[in-house]
């Protein structure tokens, strides 16, 4: 019976170790491929967003009068 507990513990330990190693490896691969080559491009600053906000029941321009 003790052998079963030892084997179960070893399998659980290896499973957790495999899980942690997979997460660390995927994080390292992601960082290697997502490394930026310079500063991020900035969007032109404007006072308006995607739609022009006016006093209307909706922001959708199709429903404006």
Estimate the global geometry from the Cα principal axes: elongated
Strand content: under 5%
| Termini separation | 81 Å
Classify the secondary structure makeup into a structural class.
Answer: mainly alpha
Helix and strand element order: H
The gyration radius over C-alpha positions equals: 27 Å
Q: Portion of residues in helices?
A: 40-55%
Number of helical segments? 1
Taking the sheet with the most strands, its summary is: none
Runs in which pLDDT lies below 50 for 5 or more consecutive residues are none
Q: Please count the beta strands (DSSP E, at least 2 residues each).
A: 0
Instruction: Output mean pLDDT.
Output: 78
Summarize the structure.
This protein has 65 residues and is mainly alpha-helical. It is built from one helix and no strands.
Describe this structure in words.
The longest helix is centred in the first third of the chain and has 32 residues, at 2-33. The protein has a domain at 1-35. Helix content is 49%, strand content 0%. The chain is built from one helix and no strands. By secondary structure, the chain is mainly α.
């Amino acid at each position: 019976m003790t052998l079963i507990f030892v084997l179960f513990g070893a399998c659980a330990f290896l499973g957790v170790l495999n899980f942690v190693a997979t997460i660390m490896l995927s994080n390292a691969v992601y960082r290697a491929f997502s490394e930026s080559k310079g500063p991020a491009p900035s969007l032109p600053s404007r006072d308006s967003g995607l739609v022009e906000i006016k006093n209307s029941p909706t922001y959708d321009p199709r429903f404006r009068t």
